[in-house]
Specification:
The protein has about 325 residues and is mainly alpha-helical. Helix 9 packs antiparallel against helix 12. A three-stranded parallel β-sheet has the order 1-2-3. Strands 4-5 form a two-stranded parallel sheet. The protein has 13 helices and five strands. The chain is about 55% helix and about 5% strand. The structure holds adenosine-5'-triphosphate and magnesium ion.
Length: about 325
Amino acid sequence: RPRVLSGIQPTADSFHLGNYLGAVRQWVALQDTHDAFYMVVDLHALTVNPSAAELTRRTRIAAAQLFACGLDPERSAVFVQSHVREHAELAWILICQTGMGEAGRMTQFKDKSAKVGEGSASVGLFTYPILQAADILLYQADQVPVGADQKQHLELSRDLAQRFNHRFGPTFTVPSPYILKEVEKITDLQDPTAKMSKSSSSPQGILDVLEQPGPLRKKVMRAVTDTGSEVVADEENKPGITNLLRIQSAITGTPVPELEARYAGQGYGTFKKDVAEVVVETFAPIRERTEKLLGDEAELDRMLAVGAAKARAVAVETMAHVRENIGFLPTP
Ligand code: ATP
Ligand code: MG
C-alpha cells in the first residue's frame, strides 16, 4: 500500500469548509487504500505566535475534529507533531540544505509576512516549508494530499529529498502531490478570489465546521455573488457563484453542469438556500461528534498516544539512516 501523509495546523478553534473538502474528507477516504499518517502540526502553528492556552485548546479541538470527521485511530496513525521529536531534528538538517533564495521564493511566506509587516514575521514563518519537508520525508510518504496552496511547498520537499539523496545516498522517498482538481481551492465567501483561510479570512468569509446552523446559513446567504442572476460557473466573471457551485457539487456529488441546469431561471436565492442546507447537514454530525470527544480528554489523549507510537516507530528509523548518512557519530 502506498503511504500518504498530511497535516493540519491548530491555528483556529475550528476547521473550515476548505480544510474539509480540500483535505480532511480525502484523508478519510484514503484510509481504505493507503497506509495513512495524519497529524496536527502544532510546531507549525508556533509560527503565528499563539498563547500557550490557545495552542493547547486548538490542538485538542483539531485532533477531536479529525476523529469526528472519520479518521480511525486503529487504521491510520493520527498524532500530534510535537509528540515526535524527530520533526524538529530533521528540519534543522534540511534547513542547512536549503538556499536562502530558494526559501525566499515561497509565496505563502510573502503573503503571510505581508500581513504582519515584513520585519515582524518570525524566522519560523520563513522556514515553515522546510519543516513541512521534514514532516513528509520523515515518513517516506509517497503521496501528500493537500490543497493547491501547498503545491509550491511540496515542490520544495521533492527538491530537498532529491538533493539529499544525491549528496548523501538514497535516504528519502520523493513524494508526489495528491490534489483533487474539483476542491483544490475553496474561496473566501466575502472575497471569492482569495482562498478560505483559518488565519486570514474574515469571520463572514469563512464557514467553520463547528459553527451552528444559524450563522452558517446567514453567511452563505450573504456570500458575495456576482452581477447577473444566472447560476453558471464562470471562474473569470463569476468567482462567487462558481465557488458555491463547486461547494455544492463536492458535497452532493452532483456534477456542476447538472446543478446549472437545475437552477436555470431560478436566480441566486433558491440556489444559495440549498447550498446552505447541504453545508449545515454535512457539518452538524461532525460538530456533535467533536463536542462529545472533547468531553472526554483522557480518551482523546489515549487515541493520540496510539498514533504517536505508530508515528515514532517510522520517524526513528528514518532518522537513524539520516544521521548515519550525513556523518554524525553513533549516538552513545
Ligand atoms: P492557515 O490560514 O492557518 O494557514 P489554512 O486554512 O490554510 O490555515 P492549514 O492548516 O494551513 O489551513 O491547511 C490544512 C489543509 O487544508 C492543507 O492541506 C491545505 O492545502 C488545505 N486547505 C486550506 N485552505 C484550503 C482551501 N481554501 N481550499 C482547499 N484546501 C485548503
Ligand atoms: Mg495554511
